[in-house]
């Protein structure tokens, strides 16, 4: 019988029983009032009722054996008839709650943990581990160091320090009167000096309240909270939660409401930049000076690799007035363009403190110093014998991750110290820190699980850790892994048998993989064991009651329902993860992808050995169909294309602040309008302006551009003239210049965009169309055309002040001879002086010359002798070199000694420009091409 039919039968029998009882009760009550009823007849009358009721109850009992609902209902009805309904229902409810809490709920929670660990394992295997592999930069492929250059390894001296006073970088205080032009001026200060002071970011009351709280926290710090510092004696630092005290949230709200700071950061880093650090540093009297340093490593920052690493800015806000004697931060402005490993001497000579220029000056409480993290600085010594602790509130900002569009990863070297719950937040979150950056939203945001619908993702803990694991960064080195397992509070909580392998080769990546796998296996074993235990218990209970209540079947059904619900929820979570931009970028292999095509990918079409050859100005040489490459210098004009991107913020204007480009833009700005005013006049007038600019460039540097692989190449004379003409026509900071810049960005996307690399024909077509558009939008064409036929003899006289290029020269002889160093370490004039020449070179001689002040002497041919000690030379670097040639090797064992040369025979040369040199004793030495020359 079907269950519905069975239930209907039970219902009908129960209705029939109720009806008979009702009729019998009413009849019996009526007959009790009659005195004529005989007892014998009454008994005969009651007999049929008892038989029918007994039969009906028997049928109901048989039918309800397999129906729990009606079995319970019938029992409840009977209990109600006997007056025990309340206590029986309570007993039933108590049994239900105990079954759920002791059997159903624990198993559901345990199954949820199994599914959670499986999801984490899936997420790690399919997303986090590929992210680590994609972010692996130096260790995975050293060629990326060369392939992803955007600038060059610029070495700096004292002339590169851009200012000597904090007064020159203080921005306007009254934001209500600030114009758009002043925002541009503020950006110019930031790009020029690498820092600026924004007054009155936090009011004095909040400064005092926050300072008192930080001082209290310094006394309560645990070992896990302390941030390591250089010269830690009398210094304390820790990561701060936005809501661990009301003063922190108030300070964040106040500084984020400053329009000037917001505009500067949004222009530098893009809209709503990410928060990478919220910390405090306290310094007490007696603290020694830290070493001069940059917060990011030279091999992993945006100075040389602007499309590979993010640029970041730290905001320092003192919470009390700071004098220089209290150890105000020492600054070395302009060094954010430098690639030197050590600028200690430069910064000691030219650096200054943020406290001011005189003893009366102070760094005011609440004034923020925003600083490029690549700029060299240090914490100064607290020289005053007594005084208050110097407490500084620090927040660091970087560009938000835009996975699939922006391929940059975090710069190397800096810790980005931040409270574990503060990852993933952005500038806009600081405005509402008390509601947005609190429990439980902050931890979920930090783990990359959830954010408010209208908010933006910052750098969450998972992605941040992945990038740092990939390159053995601070906090994620092998030593840190060992410390985590042995000493960290979390590592100590995890049982030793759940920890993964701790090997130097596998590092954190292998440790996480094995640890997650151990947790999955552990929860699976526990779940299976407990499930079988529960089944056994219910089975025993059923056996004892002859399977009357079918507890085993019921338990299995309930467990399957709970598990099915958990599986459905888990599946929806996985589907949601797969639709995120992060997951899509990993699946498409675009996360942290190479921003440019690697030269090795086109090795068959590009001869590396012939192409990387340093050359000088003058006649342009070609090699195997390609222009020769060179190393830029500060006075060169760099017309690169690898900064043409909107995702890097204001850094797309990076090259405008290169010394040679500053001079170039000054020339263009000075003569652009004058040039345009000459339109319609004989071409000699406009040609004169072009010639002046060209001559200035020839005297002080070269014009370089970048080839497809980012290598700097010297532009030939015709290209330089055309570039001068085009820039004069469009001007500086004009609508034409803005359109020209946008076309450059689109052209760079066509050249280097990941979506464009699959179709070279599409790339070529796009670049051609953009080039045509650039020419169409180029102003002044009509003026150029009408002046083409003007006679050249109408040109005004132009006095040549000196040769285009001049170098100190030394004659190279076949026998070793002591030679004097020709380059003095000082700022060079147009024609560097040379003294101590022992031989007078002649035109046509092969000599060694200091290649543009680099300190490397290379063979060259004398073209012109201006005086006895300098002239014009042509470098023939590596031309005609073959095995067994007799060469002279430059001896550099003693840099302070006179330069000498040794006889040797040339061995095998390698693509990296090094060669084997076999000396007279037969010893083989590896030397670079700039360290030897052919003997005459």
Question: What's the SSE blueprint?
Answer:
Elements: H1 3-31, H2 39-64, H3 68-81, H4 85-135, H5 144-147, H6 180-193, E1 195-198, H7 204-218, E2 235-239, H8 246-256, H9 259-269, E3 274-283, E4 312-318, E5 330-332, H10 344-350, E6 352-353, E7 368-372, E8 376-378, E9 390-398, H11 427-431, H12 433-436, H13 441-446, H14 461-470, H15 478-486, H16 489-493, H17 507-544, H18 551-578, H19 581-587, H20 608-611, E10 622-623, E11 626-627, E12 637-639, H21 659-677, H22 683-700, E13 703-706, E14 712-714, H23 717-730, H24 735-752, H25 760-777, H26 781-786, E15 809-811, E16 846-850, E17 857-867, E18 870-875, E19 886-891, E20 900-909, E21 914-919, E22 924-928, E23 932-934
Parallel strand pairs: 12-13
Antiparallel strand pairs: 1-7, 2-3, 3-9, 4-7, 4-9, 5-6, 5-8, 10-11, 13-14, 15-16, 16-17, 17-18, 19-20, 19-23, 20-21, 21-22
Helix pairs in contact: 1-2, 3-4, 4-14, 4-17, 4-18, 7-8, 17-18, 21-22, 21-23, 22-23, 24-25
């Amino acid at each position: 019988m079907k269950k519905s039919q069975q239930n209907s039968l039970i219902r009908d029998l129960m209705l029939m029983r109720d009806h008979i009882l009702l009729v019998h009760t009413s009849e019996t009550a009526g007959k009790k009032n009659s005195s004529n009823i005989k007892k014998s007849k009454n008994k005969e009358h009651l007999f049929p009722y008892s038989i029918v009721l007994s039969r009906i109850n028997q049928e109901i009992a048989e039918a309800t054996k397999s129906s729990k609902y009606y079995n319970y209902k019938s029992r409840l009805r009977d209990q109600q008839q006997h007056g025990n309904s309340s206590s029986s229902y309570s007993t039933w409810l108590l049994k239900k709650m105990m079954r759920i809490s002791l059997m159903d709920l624990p198993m559901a929670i345990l199954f949820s943990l199994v599914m959670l660990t499986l999801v984490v394992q899936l997420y790690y295997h399919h997303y986090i581990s590929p992210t680590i592999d994609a972010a692996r930069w130096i260790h995975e492929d050293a060629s990326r160091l060369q392939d992803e250059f955007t600038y060059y390894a610029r070495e700096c001296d004292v002339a590169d320090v851009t200012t000597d006073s904090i007064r020159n970088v203080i921005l306007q205080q009254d934001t209500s009167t600030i114009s758009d032009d002043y925002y541009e001026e503020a950006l110019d200060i930031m790009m020029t000096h690498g820092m600026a002071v924004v007054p009155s970011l936090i009011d004095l009351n909040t400064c005092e309240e926050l300072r008192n709280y930080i001082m209290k926290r310094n006394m309560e710090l645990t070992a896990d909270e302390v941030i390591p510092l250089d010269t830690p004696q009398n210094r304390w630092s820790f990561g701060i939660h936005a809501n661990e005290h009301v003063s922190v949230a108030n300070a964040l709200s106040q500084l984020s409401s400053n329009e000037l700071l917001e505009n500067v950061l949004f222009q530098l880093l893009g809209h709503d930049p990410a928060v990478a650090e919220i910390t405090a540093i306290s310094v007490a009297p007696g603290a020694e000076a830290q070493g001069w340093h940059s917060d990011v490593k030279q091999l992993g920052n945006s100075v040389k690799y602007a499309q590979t690493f993010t640029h970041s800015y730290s905001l320092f806000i003192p919470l009390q007035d700071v004098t220089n004697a209290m150890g105000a931060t020492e600054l070395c402005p302009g060094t954010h363009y430098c690639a030197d490993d050590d600028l200690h001497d430069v910064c000691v000579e030219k650096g200054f403190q943020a406290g001011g220029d005189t003893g009366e000056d102070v760094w005011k409480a609440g004034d923020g110093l925003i600083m490029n993290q690549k700029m060299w600085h240090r914490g100064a010594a607290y020289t005053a014998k007594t005084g208050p602790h110097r407490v500084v509130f620090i927040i660091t900002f970087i560009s938000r991750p835009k996975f699939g569009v922006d391929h940059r990863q975090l710069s190397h070297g800096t810790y980005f110290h931040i409270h574990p719950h503060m990852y993933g937040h952005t500038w806009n979150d600081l405005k509402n820190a008390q509601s947005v950056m609190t429990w439980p939203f902050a931890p979920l945001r930090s783990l990359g699980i959830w954010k408010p619908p209208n908010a933006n993702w910052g750098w969450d803990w998972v992605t941040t850790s992945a990038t740092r694991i990939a390159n053995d960064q601070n906090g994620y080195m092998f030593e840190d892994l060992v410390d985590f397992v042995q000493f960290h509070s979390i590592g100590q909580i995890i049982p030793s048998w759940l920890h993964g392998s701790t090997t130097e080769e596998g590092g954190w990546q292998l440790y996480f993989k094995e640890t997650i796998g151990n947790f999955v296996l552990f929860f699976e074993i526990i779940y299976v064991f407990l499930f079988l235990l529960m089944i056994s218990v219910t089975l025993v209970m059923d056996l004892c009651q002859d399977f009357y209540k079918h507890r085993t079947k019921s338990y299995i059904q309930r467990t399957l329902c709970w598990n099915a619900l958990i599986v459905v929820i888990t599946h929806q979570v996985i589907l949601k993860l797969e639709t995120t931009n992060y997951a899509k970028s990993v699946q498409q292999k675009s996360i942290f992808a190479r921003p440019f095509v690697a030269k090795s990918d086109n090795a068959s079409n590009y001869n590396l050995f012939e192409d990387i050859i340093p050359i000088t100005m003058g006649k342009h040489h070609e090699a195997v169909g390609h222009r020769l490459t060179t190393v830029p210098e500060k006075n060169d004009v760099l017309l690169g294309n690898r900064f043409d991107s909107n995702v890097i913020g204001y850094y797309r204007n990076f090259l405008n602040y290169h010394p040679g480009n500053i001079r170039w833009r000054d020339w263009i700005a000075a003569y652009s309008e004058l040039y345009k005013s000459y339109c319609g006049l004989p071409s000699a007038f406009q040609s004169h302006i072009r010639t002046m600019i060209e001559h200035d460039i020839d005297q002080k540097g070269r014009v370089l551009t970048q080839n497809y692989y980012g290598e700097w190449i010297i532009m030939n004379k015709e290209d330089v003239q055309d570039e001068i003409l085009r820039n004069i026509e469009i001007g500086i900071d004009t609508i034409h210049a803005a359109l020209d810049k946008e076309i450059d960005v689109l052209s760079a996307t066509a050249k280097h965009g990941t979506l464009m690399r699959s179709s070279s024909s599409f790339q070529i077509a796009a670049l051609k169309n953009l080039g045509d558009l650039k020419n169409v939008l180029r102003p002044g064409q009509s003026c150029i055309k009408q002046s083409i036929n003007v006679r050249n003899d109408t040109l005004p006289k132009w006095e040549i002040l000196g040769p285009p290029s001049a170098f100190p020269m030394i004659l190279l002889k076949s026998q070793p001879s002591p030679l004097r160093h020709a380059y003095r370490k000082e700022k060079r004039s147009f024609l560097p002086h040379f003294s101590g020449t022992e031989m007078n070179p002649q035109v046509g001689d092969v000599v060694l010359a200091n290649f543009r002040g680099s300190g490397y002497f290379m063979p060259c041919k004398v073209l012109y002798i201006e005086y006895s000690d300098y002239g014009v030379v042509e470098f023939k670097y590596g031309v005609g070199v073959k095995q067994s040639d007799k060469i002279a090797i430059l001896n550099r064992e003693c840099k302070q000694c006179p330069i000498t040369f040794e006889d040797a025979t040339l061995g095998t040369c390698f693509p990296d420009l090094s060669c084997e040199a076999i000396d007279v004793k037969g010893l083989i030495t590896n030397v670079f091409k700039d360290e030897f020359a052919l003997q005459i």
